[in-house]
């Protein structure tokens, strides 16, 4: 099954921008979410609501990657050179920046021995020098398998794609803590992980839907899932006396449905945006990867230097405000880095 798709359709541009804001808000509210029992319950519950609303961010990024890159004809070497080079060089630059920040923050220390320091840096690069960089390691793996997966997608029927997705969903379901004991002793690793989001993004992009009011149904489903995830997390946390993230699992059924619902909502939404809004969206979108790489540093620095975090005021205001400030600064820095002659495009992202 193959269908030509434009690289920059409007709804994908809108969705990419929303997902970028969502991932920053996710990390801006995560610190408060971890403070259960140390902050007023109303503050913690606000972080719970924000987290539930934006947990689709990374899965939707992967779905967009699948929508734009699967079902297309390209040369293997050309694809890997173009994609991996664009990902790896900014990633290495920012990994070193976060290693430097960890040293400055006295989280790691360098010795007088050069080889010891080299091993420390390599260790940091192996496991990730900042909490959010796990996404890049995952993305590199997806890009390595994508040319092979693309061959399947290009020739598969809708039934075959649906078969793949159903097996992926079942494997994912039986991997959940409450069902893992029922998982059969069958080798099912081929269907695990974020690979399913790639195929899901492609499938939901090319499939024809004839249901009336689908956009409204997806919006209602999204709101209902946010409520279930919020309340479920709240109840489990009360029961366990510590923040419990079972409902937040990105490879769990609730987040898969949440991500699919907002993906389809945007696919069938065609809002008329003012020209300046489109300009902001498109300008931000072209630096989305760089913004992802550097936003964690700004969240650190905003809190450390200016006390701008959830603690600034009521979290219902401070979390969106922190998100907005971090987004603006991240876009500005990424834009400036890309303006550096010769090396800018390799380190900016």
Automatic annotation (TrEMBL):
<keyword id="KW-1133">Transmembrane helix</keyword>
<dbReference type="GO" id="GO:0009246">
    <property type="term" value="P:enterobacterial common antigen biosynthetic process"/>
</dbReference>
<feature type="transmembrane region" description="Helical">
    <location>
        <begin position="15"/>
        <end position="37"/>
    </location>
</feature>
<keyword id="KW-0012">Acyltransferase</keyword>
<dbReference type="GO" id="GO:0005886">
    <property type="term" value="C:plasma membrane"/>
</dbReference>
<feature type="transmembrane region" description="Helical">
    <location>
        <begin position="83"/>
        <end position="104"/>
    </location>
</feature>
<protein>
    <submittedName>
        <fullName>Acyltransferase family protein</fullName>
    </submittedName>
</protein>
<dbReference type="InterPro" id="IPR002656">
    <property type="entry name" value="Acyl_transf_3_dom"/>
</dbReference>
<feature type="transmembrane region" description="Helical">
    <location>
        <begin position="131"/>
        <end position="149"/>
    </location>
</feature>
<feature type="domain" description="Acyltransferase 3">
    <location>
        <begin position="10"/>
        <end position="335"/>
    </location>
</feature>
<feature type="transmembrane region" description="Helical">
    <location>
        <begin position="49"/>
        <end position="71"/>
    </location>
</feature>
<dbReference type="Pfam" id="PF01757">
    <property type="entry name" value="Acyl_transf_3"/>
</dbReference>
<feature type="transmembrane region" description="Helical">
    <location>
        <begin position="287"/>
        <end position="310"/>
    </location>
</feature>
<dbReference type="GO" id="GO:0016413">
    <property type="term" value="F:O-acetyltransferase activity"/>
</dbReference>
<feature type="transmembrane region" description="Helical">
    <location>
        <begin position="161"/>
        <end position="179"/>
    </location>
</feature>
<feature type="transmembrane region" description="Helical">
    <location>
        <begin position="316"/>
        <end position="337"/>
    </location>
</feature>
<feature type="transmembrane region" description="Helical">
    <location>
        <begin position="216"/>
        <end position="234"/>
    </location>
</feature>
<keyword id="KW-0812">Transmembrane</keyword>
<feature type="transmembrane region" description="Helical">
    <location>
        <begin position="185"/>
        <end position="204"/>
    </location>
</feature>
<comment type="similarity">
    <text>Belongs to the acyltransferase 3 family.</text>
</comment>
<feature type="transmembrane region" description="Helical">
    <location>
        <begin position="246"/>
        <end position="266"/>
    </location>
</feature>
<keyword id="KW-1003">Cell membrane</keyword>
<keyword id="KW-0472">Membrane</keyword>
<keyword id="KW-0808">Transferase</keyword>
